[in-house]
Amino acid sequence: MRSMQDDARTLDELERINCGDAPPKASYLVATLHALRKKPISQFTNEDLRICIGQEIGLPWLMPRALSTLEHDPLTAGDFYEGDLLLVVVRACGSISHNRELITRVGQVVRRARTLLIARPDLEFVLSKLEREWRD
After folding, report:
1. For the chain, give me the number of helices (H) and strands (E)?
2. Are 61 and 68 a contacting pair, CB within 8 Å?
3. How far apart are CA 52 and CA 112, in angstroms?
4. Which residue segment(s) compose the domain that 11 sits in?
5. How far apart are CA 49 and CA 78, in angstroms?
6. Cα separation of 89 and 53, whole Å?
């Protein structure tokens, strides 16, 4: 179970590992992931959440944080487009399927997002991806 104290800690601290620095010629993604593992999760942006959850890193701590954001606004954006955070959360659900509380919360956010997306023809591609990824 996640605590408020966990929010002040880094993923390396929470997972009790030290990933060290990224290799010298690391890709942008690898370098970013190494840096994010050393950043307190209380300081994570929506984009930081999107990146780590998309790679299924730190899910026990980051999924509840992302869901709190999505419950406020299901179409919250990282750096790409509205709804990008929701899509990575939905894709990561297979890795948290044992946590019924989180899956229930994701389902509630998805239902709200569908309602919002129907009224947004400019985000039809997000609705299409969501429908492919999530089955009630």
Report:
1. 7, 0
2. no
3. 24
4. 4-133
5. 8
6. 7
Distances (CA, A) of 89 to 17, 27, 35, 49, 78: 24, 23, 21, 9, 12
pLDDT (tens digit, 9 = 90+) per residue, 54-107? 999 999 999 999 999 999 999 999 999 999 999 999 999 999 999 999 999 999
Q: Report helix, strand or coil for 134.
A: coil
Q: How confident is the model at residue 6 (pLDDT cuts 50, 70, 90)?
A: confident
Per the listing, tokens 């930081």 go with: 48
The separation between CA 125 and the C-alpha centre of its own chain, rounded to angstroms, equals: 19
42, 33, 35, 29: CA torsion to nearest 10: -130
- What would the 3-class secondary structure string for 39-76 be? CCHHHCCHHHHHHHHHCCCCHHHHHHHHHHHHHHCCCC
Amino acid at position 117, single letter: L
Question: 136: helix, coil or strand?
Answer: coil
Rounded Cα gap, residues 102 and 71, in angstroms? 12
- Number of structural domains in the chain: 1
